[in-house]
Amino acid sequence: MSATQAVADRPDTEAATTYDAIIIGAGISGIHQLYRLRELGMKVRVFEAGTNVGGTWYWNRYPGARFDSESWTYGYSFSEELLKEWDWKEHFSPQPDNLEYLNLVADKFGLRPDMQFRSRVTAAHWNDAANQWTVTLESGETASARFLFTAIGILSAPTLPRIPGVESFRGPAHHTGCWPHTLVNFTGKRVGIIGTGATAIQAIPEIARQAQHLTVFQRRPNWAAPLHNSRISKAEMEEIKSRYAEIYARCAGTPGWFIHQPDPRKALDVPAEEREAFWEKLYAEPGFGIWMANFSDILVDEKANAAISEFIARKIRQRVKDPKVAEKLIPKDHGFGTRRVPLESGYFEAYNRDNVLLVDLNETPIEQITPGGIKTSEKEYEFDILVYATGYDGVTGAFDRIDFRGPGGVRLRDVWADGPRTYLGQLAEGFPNLLMVLGPHTARGNIPRAIEHSVEWQTGLLRFMREHNYIRVETRPEYVAEWTETVIKASEPLLSSKVDSWQTGVNRNVEGRSVRRVLGYNGNGVNYRRKTDEVAKGGYKEFVFR
Ligand SMILES: Cc1cc2nc3c(=O)[nH]c(=O)nc-3n(C[C@H](O)[C@H](O)[C@H](O)COP(=O)(O)OP(=O)(O)OC[C@H]3O[C@@H](n4cnc5c(N)ncnc54)[C@H](O)[C@@H]3O)c2cc1C
What is the pTM of this model? Predict the structure, then answer.
């Protein structure tokens, strides 16, 4: 038995410090939830695996990491003072600025004293008699609380490629999601990068500019469209500040909680010339318009989707000089927008450089990572630095890494084996007082807007419990069944539900993650907001309280 296991098996109440609430994670979700719980006067502890706040923006320090949400739609809206104080410098803000922002929030609201860093939670066990959770940290330390909030992220469990020899490379090897805090100098170096997903698409143009040579190993291309980032002048920022209320109201009224509203027309109902002009316009504009402000049927109708995919493919062919390379970069197994679309800045042009080589792993698979580099079925490539842009075990990955046990020792991992079981994505079935900020089966999209909604809704629930002297809340099976059905039904018409991606729970680098699952509510953020508001206004009748 390992030391951690021994500690996890100790009686739950032994020597554990007790809080009103424990929050796991100090990213956007954890910071916001802590702020609200402190307002309620609760004694709260945040346990965070990293050495500081920031979550995604703490871990993902790779070159090129930045928002693809408009910066001014990403920040918190809960404090007028903060909105006035903080100036975004770019429309799609880079990681260092995002991290600076989150540090400012933690300092400004004096949140750090309630946060404990270098504290990875390995287990969380419910004590039915005491009505409380006990969490165990990697160090063996334990702590208990009546309420447990997960703020552990949907893209926070990085996965390495399942390739023999992955640990054997003798040079530096970095996953984009665990990037070193010191500068990685690519100058004069031969670099190999595995993966062509969202983080690779941001990193490749930057690394290509610095490295002596960059070899990109691609298993599966992704659609990508231009970000068109630009700086925000002082005057422009003042103007944005004057419109914050309007901006947030607009986000709340769109399906994905971005500023982008779909065009109600159907793609093929529009004359070809007009359709083409509309797509040209969207392609030339900043942000997710090409994905989210497009014709209403491109993500549900095969023909409409084939038309937009052909448009984007043409753009790739125009931008990449070598036609053979261009064809390799055009996805053939899924249509545009059916996986989350990475937005890029010079990604396709990077392949026009003499120092960049694309290796198609369908033609020459990797056999092994060696001390000197990467060996494919064709040859061995020598590298000084390796980059693993191999993504995350999405949505449920961070949950799977914690041993959650509910009443009777039931394990969350087992209950969710075929897919999450929740009510509204806020509480998991059978796990009392476990509140999930941005849990599976919530609406997502522009994530901080979804987080804010979760935090406010859960804070409202706690206020309600306090008013009624309740100490325990849990879901009712019939409503869990209803919500699960709603979530599954909402995903059925979407072409994305027929595609393997982190959003459908597929990750070939994780054992047992090859079957698609429905992990989010895709039935429009507006409907989700309405439904959750109704439940709150109706006095949370869908839950059992004690
Ligand atoms: C590269 C990248 C770019 C992104 N860009 C955008 C964007 O432009 N727009 C957008 O809407 N979304 C974006 N996202 C999604 C992004 O994750 C969210 O915007 C947001 O940061 C989520 O915040 P969070 O606090 O819920 O989770 P996270 O930021 O992931 O924070 C979770 C925290 O929990 C901690 N944690 C997890 N498990 C444990 C444990 N067992 N014990 C202790 N601590 C734990 C982690 O260390 C982490 O710090 C991006 C994601 C990535 C990876």
Answer: 0.96
Contact yes or no for 198/59 (Cβ under 8 A): no
| pLDDT, tens digit (0-9, with 9 covering 90-100), for 427-477 | 999 999 999 999 999 999 999 999 999 999 999 999 999 999 999 999 999
Separation of CA 151 and ligand 1 centre (Å) = 9
Return the residue matching tokens 């032994």: 14
Q: Is the CB of 48 under 6 A from ligand 1?
A: yes
Residues 122-159 have pLDDT tens digits of 999 999 999 999 999 999 999 999 999 999 999 999 99
SS (H, E, C) 254-314: CCCCCCCCCECCCHHHCCHHHHHHHHHHHHHCCCCHHHHCCECCCCCCHHHHHHHHHHHHH
Give the DSSP letter string of 353-422. Answer: STTEEEEETTTS-EEEE-SSEEEESS-EEE-SEEEE---B-TTTHHHHTSEEE-GGG-BHHHHTTTS--E
- List the structure tokens of 507: 């990750």
- Atom 16 (ligand 1): residue with closest C-alpha? 56
Gap from CA of 37 to ligand 1 centroid (Å): 20
Beta-sheet pairing, 17-24 with 142-150: parallel
